[in-house]
């Protein structure tokens, strides 16, 4: 209907849907591992508060969740990282989890806001030795890198790499057509620039020409239905020295709780020799 009668109204509706966060059940948010006592963090951010937790001392590793996620999705990483001698910081982005609403209001967010919130956390709680980021959290970290953030080692898991794919899925699901798409993209570009600017591989390719990037290890499951493993392969191709490890039957979220993924990521973060020590574990390719 919107396509034929009112594509501009369809563009507004698509924009409203695009920035809306999914509802997360209490069952999904329940802790599956026992955690040591944490220090609660509260950081004023624009008109709200970001809430998070920290554990331990030593070089800091930040855990950065994705769209609709929350900091304690990374609970399985906390104790192994502590045992490896790291300080661990996790947080809920604006409008996520326990944090207060952000720029877009309750239950809504944007990737630039998530990137800004991450950079604010680093500014407040200390430089990052390492980062573990999931899905759109990896996109937010890439934006932060583009804007001057630095770290020694980075782990991306189930990276969201190209949002044109997501737009196509929305169009198919809701029945939007090309006129509605054009109206949405016009509105999006007016606020944030072209959607193509958020594609991770081209961002990384440009960054690699400008400066040295952190060491990167990427995990992605072949059966992930939310983000493309091929997209992660493209990122690895343009990120100098990066390694890709593919998994099977873990999907988009369960991969965050997989013991082998947690162990390999912790080893990678733990020493400068980690890439060589992991050897074939992290050198698996899309054909592996």
Would you write up a description of this structure?
By secondary structure, the protein is of the alpha/beta class. It is 42% helix and 17% strand. The protein has 12 helices and 8 strands. It has an 8-stranded mixed sheet with strand order 1-2-4-3-5-6-7-8, sandwiched between helices.
Helices and strands, with pairings:
Layout: H1 2-5, H2 7-18, H3 26-29, E1 39-45, E2 48-55, E3 60-64, H4 75-83, E4 87-92, H5 111-125, E5 130-134, H6 136-146, E6 153-157, H7 163-174, H8 178-192, H9 200-210, E7 215-221, H10 229-238, E8 243-247, H11 259-270, H12 274-278
Parallel strand pairs: 3-4, 3-5, 5-6, 6-7, 7-8
Antiparallel strand pairs: 1-2, 2-4
Short structural summary:
The protein has 288 residues and is of the alpha/beta class. Helix content is 42%, strand content 17%.
Strand order within the widest sheet? 1-2-4-3-5-6-7-8
**What fraction, in percent, of the residue positions are helical?**
40-55%
- Report the end-to-end length measured between terminal Cα atoms: 46 Å
Q: How many domains in all?
A: 1
Our count of helices gives 12
Strand content: 15-25%
CATH class: Alpha Beta
Uncertain stretches of 5 or more adjacent residues:
273-288
Computed Rg: 19 Å
Cα shape: globular
Order of helices and strands: HHHEEEHEHEHEHHHEHEHH
List keywords for this structure.
42% helix; 17% strand; disordered C terminus; Rossmann fold; 288 residues
